[in-house]
Amino acid sequence: MVTATSAGGTTATVEAANAEAFARLDAADPWVVDVVPARNAIPGYADNLVLTSGAPMEWQDYVGGQREALIGGALFEGLARTRAEAIAGFESGAIRIGACHDFGAVGSLAGIYTASMPVFVVENRTHGNIGFCNFYEGKEPRRLNYGCYDEGVHERLVHVNTVLAPVVGEAIRRSGGVSLKPLIARALRMGDEVHSRNAAASLLFNREILPATLDMVRDGFPGVREAMVHLAENDYFFLRLSMAAAKASADAMVVPGSTLVSAMAFSCRGFAIKLAGLGDRWFEGPPPVHEGKLFAGHAEDEITWMGGESPITETIGLGGLAQACALTLQEYQGGSPEIMIERNRQMYEITHGENAVYRIPLFGFRGTPTAIDARKVLRTGITPVMDVGLAGRDGGQIGAGIIRAPLECFEMAMAAFTAGDTTG
Predict the structure, then answer these.
(1) Which helix (H) or strand (E) holds 202?
(2) Within a 10 A sphere around the Cβ of 63, how many other Cβ atoms?
(3) Average pLDDT, the chain
(4) CA 365, CA 34: separation in Å to the nearest integer?
């Protein structure tokens, strides 16, 4: 725990910084305002750039499904004609790799972005910053973000680019943008936690854009029916919106002297966190601890790590920190109502405060535990819980469950904070 003599600041100054960082997070007002290709939306996005999840790494450090996803992204974008050409391109630097968070973006699982892929543009209207997230590919277990690239994956990605994204983007623009915070708050009251369960939020979003899509049908805009059927059939569609909203909210937290967590992510190598008081520096530990429920025909030894930045939802008090809103998740990811409720109650012990808008009906509409404090994690030994999908070593989703961040990340972060070390 930070002491009055630590280089990171006195206890009083840390508390003041944490109060400010929490207030900025709590006041965030994310609106989805557009859908455009990554090259047109994300500042500095080059045509030969492929983004992926987790703290930045060199090409040779990417292994398993995350490496395969990067190769698949290069092939999809036409940066290489063959797998061998893609590998050579990454090795030479002709094809660049970037970390999603460095570009204001977040990625699900392997988190692959390429220049032509459409992204949600989410503006935090309180603070003016913007977060990005790409589209959900669909409910087929074999997806690019799960380390798969084949003809079926290619066709689904083309469908997103040419049918789904143009319709959704036009509907958002015609609607004048969609305010996401009240929509998320209502979804929590309807049984979502907007990480592993997004059924209510997806329906609520569809309702928000319905008037615009009806007008688009009248005007002869192509692909509306096909796109709306896709949205209606995919309960996880909203996850990418909740991630972009969380990124736009969390990026406003950066306050010198704060020990609150402003980002959590993992790669094939390990789990990492950022502190609001230490800017863009990542503190990386081993892979997360997990428990979950596997789909039929799969075994525990198949589980692999290939990245993931959806824990940005937990960073702002959603997902695992709102798990008591979504007790039906036990059927999907295992556990029991009692365990889920107890996990959620634990999170109040390691967070700075309670969210003013996101509330848990089961707890008497108490605000969700929000803004993880690294000091409290070390003091209690309780680590953040996150709801996630589980990837298999041969690609694809093989189950779902919860993970807990490794304690080592918080130990390293607080050691640097206490020493006043803000260097990378």
Answers:
(1) helix 199-218
(2) 14
(3) 94
(4) 32
Closest-CA residue to 57 (of 266, 204, 228): 266
Strands 49-52 and 96-99: parallel
Distance between CA atoms of residues 196 and 187, nearest Å: 13
Read off the pLDDT of residues 14-66 as tens digits, 9 standing for 90 and up: 999 999 999 999 999 999 999 999 999 999 999 999 999 999 999 999 999 99
Query: Is the pLDDT confidence value at 360 over 70?
Result: yes
Q: Per-residue pLDDT averaged across 218-236, rounded?
A: 95
Name the token pair of 317.
């008090």
User: Residue 408 and residue 259: Cα distance in Å, rounded?
Assistant: 15
**Band of residue 390 on the pLDDT scale cut at 50, 70, 90:** confident
Say which CATH superfamily domain 30-243 falls into.
Enterococcus faecalis V583 domain (3.90.1710.10)
* pTM of the complete model: 0.94
For 31, 134, 163, 392, 401, the CA distances from 59, given in Å and listed in that order, are: 35, 22, 33, 21, 29
The domain segmentation of the chain, as residue ranges, is 11-26+257-419, 30-243
Burial class (CB in 10 A: 0-12, 13-18, 19+), 218: exposed
CATH number of 11-26+257-419: 3.90.1700.10
- The closest alpha carbon to 202, from 212, 211, 191, belongs to 191
Of 295, 223, 283, 300, nearest to 409 (Cα)? Answer: 283
Cβ atoms 344, 358 nearer than 8 A:
no
